[in-house]
Here is the input.
Amino acid sequence: MRLHTLVGSGLLLACLGGVSYAGCVNQHEQQQKVDLGASQSVKDLMAARGLTDADVEAALKTYVPPGKHDEYMIFASGGQSGNVNVIGVPSMRLLKVIGVFTPESWQGWGFGGDSNKILADGHQAGHEISWADVHHPNLSETKGDYDGEFLFVNDKANARVAVVDLKDFATKQIVANPLAASDHGGAFVTPNTDYVIETSQYPAPLGRDYAPLSEFKEKYRGVAVFWKFDRQKGRIDKTQSWAIELPPYTQDLADAGKLDSDGWAFINSFNSEMATGGTLDKKPPIESGASQNDMDYLHIINWRKAEELIKAGKGTEIKGMKVLPLSVSGAEGVLTLVGEPKSPHGCDVTPDGKDIVVGGKLDTHATVYSFEKVKKLIEEKKFEGKDDFGLPILSFKDAIRGQVEIGLGPLHTVFDDKGYAYTSVFLESVVAKWSLKDLKTVEKVKVHYNIGHILSAEGDTVSPDGRYVVAMNKMSMDRFTGVGPLYPQNFQLVDITGEQMRILSDAPIGNAEPHYSQMIKVDKLKTIKAYPPGTNAEGQVDENRVEGGKERIERKDGEVHVWMTAIRSHFTPDIIEVEQGEKVVLHITSVESGEDQTHGFTIDMYNVNVSLEPGKHENITFVADAPGVYPFYCTEFCSALHLEMQGWLLVKPKEKSASAPEADKKTGG
Ligand code: CUK
Ligand code: CUA
Here is the structure.
């Protein structure tokens, strides 16, 4: 074994592959010239590792050598992790985890610094929520194309939307939906990112109020919130945001129109039966109650018209937000319904904005609605009838361009640059490629079990790139080395450049159940390498920023303020003495400017950890309530003397009260 180690691990691999011991040594002598590890040739290596030509081709297409960069980046929903994963393509390497709704200690996100304020804005009704169910990341767009500036994600569980700035890949804002109790159709952007759309999922009384289920039809509602995005500020402007009341069907996925259909939004729904369950009372569960009708309703929203009506004062105010009532939307042509078959799920507008593709979970078709037909029917008021809430309904057969025979359980659809659509087919576990022109399936590729969402390169823009599709699979049995009963999810990278789709690689996702993801060309991103000196988590130069030489400790009103700097490899000051019970406020600026020179700051017991990238500033507040000696130190191995980058917080016991010395003596033993 020692000899093997000496001659290199490549040789060891070949030896394990069955080559004799003496043969190993001989091979080693020969390979000095060809430099293929222990192998005489690529063929030799393939044989040793049991690889086919197709494997090698896939490896060559996805291998990114040390020092080379990936061409695309995926922003993947972190599902129940509440965060976002950033993955390089074609390597499928994890590049970053962005802390969004869930504290992420690696990023110093939510552990005592200024990021806590951003997380606190996401509280619902005063309740702290430290997790989320992230479903749909959406990149900001300009003229329907990703512009690489911002990312928006929704939290299905608690009805919230977050804004991530892609200059530093950090969350800048969380807004809590004041009307809904859950969301799903979000966070979808309009073509110039004027609005970020967030649609409720499970109906509830608007404004998070109470009403008994017996009043479901009267009091329960869905809602679509149009969050106004202020690009200059890089924040959602709550004061300019508004909403549309929706009937109490369970609204599901949504998409914004583009080009021909710009100004419109499409939301599908299930449970138009309005089943409410009641399994303990022997009533059918919602799953069967909700599957009685053959059709549910695609909601067609003229949001430009809604915006005008809101501006004209037609909204009613609920919990501080203007809401356009159902009656107005129905009468003014803002909200129109059309049937959609069997438990619809995905709702995707084609790159040219001319069609809307809907997949039915219990159907074998994808239905393709023609926006031109839909618009004409609405303009001519050709309605088939009205629903229980007075909303006009279009004739299904008059509104569609056709249906594509896909397979069992089509869910989501993405697009390429050659006029093809790719639909994930859940029950059949395939990706189905079909032609948008003649609505015919041309090819299916088997993916590993139960594909949910699917994504393609720049796939939600007006000009998709083609090249790659990623199947986002819910299960990974038999796929990876066992890691216990909770399995990773599995991303499969699919090459769509050739005549036939080819699976290139599997990437286990071990920290999330990703729902949707988007893939952007990396050259569109304009990331910074360091912050302007003194920048806080909200992206502003902090009023308490500290410059080198201006460090100090001051006391006022029972608070101890410490203005501190961090630079390789010390904190100034490094000794802080306080009295038990004093409030400690640390203002720490990293006065580094060099690329990748990050420090961290933690202190024993107070649940504090911040990340201090070059130029970053953090304000940390806690009450030093327990006497003791608390080392603080840098949590990032920043230099040869990183371990020496430490200091002390000394918390002196409170002066014993002079009036009660006897009592102290007794308890002190
Ligand atoms: S959903 Cu999860 S697979 Cu929330 Cu977009 Cu379809
Ligand atoms: Cu600074 Cu380690």
Summary: The first strand starts at residue 72 and ends at 77. The CA atoms of residues 72 and 521 lie 4 Å apart. The chain has a mean pLDDT of 92. The chain has three domains: 3-62, 72-98+132-524, 552-652.
